[in-house]
Amino acid sequence: MQKQSHSLHIYTDGASRGNPGKGGFGVVMMWGNAVKEIAAGYRLTTNNRMELMAVIVALQHLTKKNIPLTIYTDSKYVADSIEKKWVDNWIKTNFKGGKKNKDLWLQYYHLAKDFTIKIKWVKGHADNIYNNRCDELATTAADGNNLLIDEGYENAETINNNLSNTKLNFL
User: Fold this and answer.
1) CATH classification code of 8-164
2) 1: pLDDT strictly greater than 60
3) Residue 74: C-alpha distances to residues 11, 109, 165 (Å)
4) Domain boundaries, the chain
């Protein structure tokens, strides 16, 4: 009898009401028959930050390392940055040229090295039920009460100055 291999499937989406504006993200994680949903809303952020935050939060919730996982996103920004290795180049050049969302890309980079990640772009607002569920989670979170503060966005200048003075010696 052949041992069945499982892989983790993670669907993510981000949303903002205005750009910048209130925002939120939604995550649906599936492993076999188990499903976990995660969502949070922020008082001031951007759509790209919420798209990336969804991926980061999903990775933060994983307790097992070195497992195969597939991340599905409708964000070309996230999919291309990961698949085309742009983020690796940004890390190597210490984000020369002032790339946006440095704080989040650094978090992603540190988390991602513990996993074998396959990224897949999916068409948003289409017929993918899991992407549509993530969109529902993200927009509901953005419209909710008790919104969180996206410190990286609201304090971006201070954070980026501190990160610029930090040597990236983990390469």
Assistant:
1) 3.30.420.10
2) no
3) 9, 20, 33
4) 8-164
